[in-house]
Amino acid sequence: MKKSAFIYTILFIFIGLMGFSGELPKGSKDKSVIISGSISDKTSNEYLAGVKIACANCQKIVYSDLDGKFFIYLEVKADENLTLEFSQVGYTTKTLDLKEVQANGSNLYIDLESE
After folding, report:
1. Mean pLDDT of the chain, nearest integer
2. Are 98 and 84 in contact (CB under 8 A)?
3. pLDDT of 24 above 60
4. CA dist list (Å): 85 to 23, 51, 54, 73, 104
5. What is the pTM of this model?
6. Contact between 95 and 78 (Cβ < 8 Å)
7. For a designed S-S bond to 94, which of 50, 68, 85, 86 qualifies (C-beta 3.0 to 4.6 A apart)?
8. Closest-CA residue to 85 (of 69, 99, 75, 96)
């Protein structure tokens, strides 16, 4: 009886492992990008709270905190070109290409002009 229970246990483990084999990570070309920075008024240099930072292609939105700081985490495909849009009522919208953002480093300083 113990021998058959042992065989069933081993068989159960083997079948369970085979079931998960189809869920192994695929060799996708996705990469994670973390972008942070601060946003201020161009003329007064005061930090702006509540600025909307939107990634148009990936439909992700974050807002700057009370100190004008923001943090956004994106997962992008290698061939995908994303844009970040910084907007707030009373200020002109600023749009940055993700490649331009990465060239400037992951910590950005954005200044918005009032309308």
Report:
1. 81
2. yes
3. no
4. 35, 10, 5, 14, 16
5. 0.69
6. no
7. 86
8. 96
Most confident of 6-10, 47-51, 77-81: 47-51
Burial code (b: 16+ CB inside 10 Å, e: under 16) for 22-38 equals eeeeeeeeeeeeebebb
Percentages helix, strand, coil for the chain, rounded to the nearest 5?
25, 40, 35
CATH of 30-112, one of 3.40.50.720, 2.60.40.1120, 3.90.180.10, 3.40.50.2000: 2.60.40.1120
Q: pLDDT of 61-108, one tens digit each?
A: 999 999 999 998 888 776 677 888 999 999 999 998 877 776 766 688
One-letter amino acid at 96 equals L
